Amino acid sequence: MNPELFKDGPAGRFVEISLEGVNHYAFVPNPLPPELAINAKLARLLSEASHALGQLSALGERIPNPKLLISPFIRREAVLSSRIEGTEAELADLYAYEAGQLALPGLRTSAPESDVKEVLNYVHAMEYGLEQLTRLPVSLRLVRELHARLMHGVRGGEVMPGEFRKNQNWIGPRGSKITESRFVPPPVPQLMEGLDLFEKYIHTEQYPPLIHIALLHYQFEALHPFRDGNGRVGRLLISLMLVERKLLPLPILYLSAFFERNQETYYDLLLAVSQRGAWYEWVEFFLQGVAEQSRHAITSTIAFLELREEWKRRLTKARASALLIRLAEELFHSPILTIPRAQKILGLKSYLSAQRNIEKLVKAKILKALNEAKYGRAFFAEDIFRLAQEK
């Protein structure tokens, strides 16, 4: 990290550190909040983002069976947030892995299993966080618990999952030395002090909620409290804080698609806050992302709801049983279906009965066969996968 690129000012200060007998500098962000007068441009962006988010929230209130219908959103976010950190897994890999199929004809990609596990851990961490919000506020305890689930059994999982770092870290290409770093977060004593202030600031109300969350996201990334997984935990927190603040009833807005499309800008603006106190530029970018992704989420949610209604019409016309409609609903959770999985979902003792239900969904053009194997056949709801892929 080049100290000449950073200026003492509104965002933080430098402290000198010694690592392996060599002196370096680390950046300690100032406590939140910064002074941020809401000018005309920021007010306009805030209004646009709040309006789009409000429309999405109203739509979310009307979602039937929300646990199933939000599943594609969570998985898309998991793929994109993990991809920002360098994983190669695609949505098809995740769905196939969850269905117990490491490779499927027509869905096969080149992602290693380790990458898919990282993405699945993100899903589990998000689901855990949403469950915990019913009894635990967003807090350092929840942050640690999210990290533990995110890093369990995957790359970086050996570096203290669920524990704040006890050593100096730095941000740069994987495997780089501190002398090659782009940014060096605060040393441990200042980190722990900063985390305490971060937690205290979470539930203040000095700024409108969306600006508040933008400030918190920067602060978390600047503190970089874990040895690995900081970016993913930081983006998880955005989704959880939107729900906790009742800005959304369900986690149907995810910013990772926006951050991935604008990845270089995303990183540059976070760094610019540290270097020159570019709070306005960062908050404007964040609000732009909220507005864009809210509008996209509205379109996606409507498309999923319309698909659900279309399927119900087809099955009702075919005089389908309640069991068959239930099986079709489960496809929103995972669009890949095997006969044993259908048997488990429906609680059927008969393999043949489960097979017949799947055949009815194929006849209704809800499922299509992915292979023609005599054993281990898999089926796929292509419409759900198509909608879930749109970012």
Q: What does the model show?
A:
- With 391 residues, the chain is mainly alpha-helical.
- The protein folds into two domains: 3-300, Orthogonal Bundle (Fic-like fold), CATH 1.10.3290.10; 319-389, Orthogonal Bundle (Arc Repressor Mutant, subunit A), CATH 1.10.10.10.
- It is 57% helix and 6% strand.
- It has 16 helices and five strands.
- The longest helix has 39 residues, at 279-317.
- The protein starts with 11 loop residues before the first strand and ends with a helix.
Descriptive key words:
391 residues; mainly alpha; Fic-like fold; Arc Repressor Mutant, subunit A; 5 strands
Rg, nearest Å = 23 Å
H/E order of the elements?
EEHHHHHHHHHHHHHEHHEEH
Q: Would you give the CATH topology of the largest domain? A: Fic-like fold
- Mean pLDDT over the full residue set: 90
Short description:
By secondary structure, the protein is mainly α. The chain contains 16 helices and five strands. Helix content is 57%, strand content 6%.
